[in-house]
Amino acid sequence: MYGLRNVSSIRACPPALALYAWENGSEAHAKALYGCHYPTPNTAGYPYLKRHSFHGWRLSLVGKPYGSFTMSRGTSSFHVGGTDFPLNCT
Predict the structure, then answer these.
(1) In the chain, what are the domain boundaries?
(2) Which pLDDT score, from 0 to 100, does residue 63 have?
(3) Long-range contacts made by residues 50-53, C-beta under 8 angstroms, separation at least 24?
(4) For residue 77, what pLDDT is reported?
């Protein structure tokens, strides 16, 4: 987690870890979370989210070119990094 805004790491860590556990609990969960758009068959694509909320937190991709995976609720937000984020559509 990084870029914490109006939230402590103690409050941000549980939903981030819960999302990680859920996503990695099943291949179907990862497919339900995000996908990739490919402009042409032989080029890298760009990610999009299929699921937009998790345990009361809003999920979004913020910024360019591919976006930081962000969890937010009210005025609180943080970015999630790791092996899956930023999303890779190569």
Answers:
(1) 27-67
(2) 77
(3) none
(4) 96
Model's pTM, two decimal places?
0.83
Between CA 37 and CA 89 the distance in angstroms is: 8
What's the Rg (C-alpha) of the chain?
13
Cα–Cα distance for residue pair 84/30, rounded to 1 Å: 10
Looking up tokens 């990680």 gives: 20
Nearby residues of 17 by Cβ (< 8 Å), 6 or more positions away = none
**CB-count burial class (<10 Å; 0-12, 13-18, 19+) for 38:** exposed
Q: Is residue 45 within 8 Å of residue 34, measured between CB atoms?
A: no
Task: Tell me what percent of the residues of the chain surpass a pLDDT of 90.
Answer: 49
